[in-house]
Amino acid sequence: MIIVLKPQATEQDAKALLNQIEQCGLKPLYMPGVERIVLGALGDERVLQQCHFEANPLVEEVKPILTKYKRVSRDVQPHDSVVHIGNVPVGGQHFVVMAGPCSVESEQQLLSVAERVKTHGARVLRGGAFKPRTSPYDFQGMGIEGLKLLKQASDLTGMPTVSEVMEISQVDAVCEYIDCLQIGARNMQNYGLLKAVGETGKPVLLKRGLSATIEECLLAAEYIVDAGNPNVILCERGIRTYETATRNTLDLNAVALMKQRSHLPVLVDPSHGTGVRELVTPLSRAAAAVGADGIIVESHLNPSEALSDGHQALTGDMFAQLMQELTPFVQAAGREL
Ligand code: PEP
Ligand code: MN
After folding, report:
1. Separation of CA 213 and ligand 1 centre (Å)
2. Range with the lowest mean pLDDT among 4-18, 45-59, 218-232?
3. Against a cut of 0.85, is the pTM above it?
4. Is the shortest distance between the CB of 127 and ligand 1 below 6 Å?
5. What distance in Å separates the CA atoms of residue 104 and residue 130, rounded to the nearest whole number?
6. Residue 104 to residue 147: CA distance in whole angstroms
7. Phi, psi of 146 (to 5 degrees)
8. 269 C-alpha to center of ligand 1: Å?
9. In angstroms, rounded to a whole number, what is the distance separating the alpha carbons of residues 131 and 251?
């Protein structure tokens, strides 16, 4: 429920109401605006109705939040959230490009691709150290050694990093070396893990599950925010459909809809979304056009030798070309690269 206070209501008045909300056994939210204060009361609908906040003379309006997710809903916060990964704002005026290899493979591999993507305008370095592989016989990632290499690459290039955490037991290590925790598609509904990253307060890149609905994705984000961490970035990375010509079907509907329904930043991952390197640039342009806040793409200076996802990795030259071809679309969308 959203409680809009009258313009004359003071911070003191709001605090008294927040106390009242808490005493009813509901979760209070404080949302000061430019003209008036807005409060939220989250919890059991029946309790909400019994509290009669509308009878308070300082209350202008009481509105229900109709969606199941509350804190991530635009009903609760009409303006866009900006999440900072290190010194890079995500969700503001800038269209953010995150790039790097699928997996961290060696110092030389990571540093060379990091320098290259940085030169062409990437702001955040990606790289997997803990890899969720479909086959147990495939490369499973370098683990902690990979995290250390990401930290080293970050120190050298000045780019903050994003890397996947697959298990609760890995959260502390990933937090120690990495600026943004990635929750992979396969773990989008791992609620214990969502709560654990929620408790860290670190930025989280939450990827949509391959067969998750948009509502399920927003509810997964709600878990993280409800655990005390508002720094969530959503990511559409393609869903599973009957189509087999591409690895996944990149659902751009979801991007437009999530931007409407939620105040959280939304990224697009055209690498996993298509699984085809030649399709990464066209779908990146589409991401900018549809209103995404940025993209996360895979790049490898020698894709034929990549230990994972080589078929969808952009070479250095292809990454440079992507940035060039993306620019007019980002500008047309009213953003800057
Ligand atoms: C990745 O980013 O390398 C990855 C495994 O992504 P997803 O969870 O979207 O498959
Ligand atoms: Mn990958």
Report:
1. 17
2. 45-59
3. yes
4. no
5. 9
6. 8
7. -65, -40
8. 9
9. 23
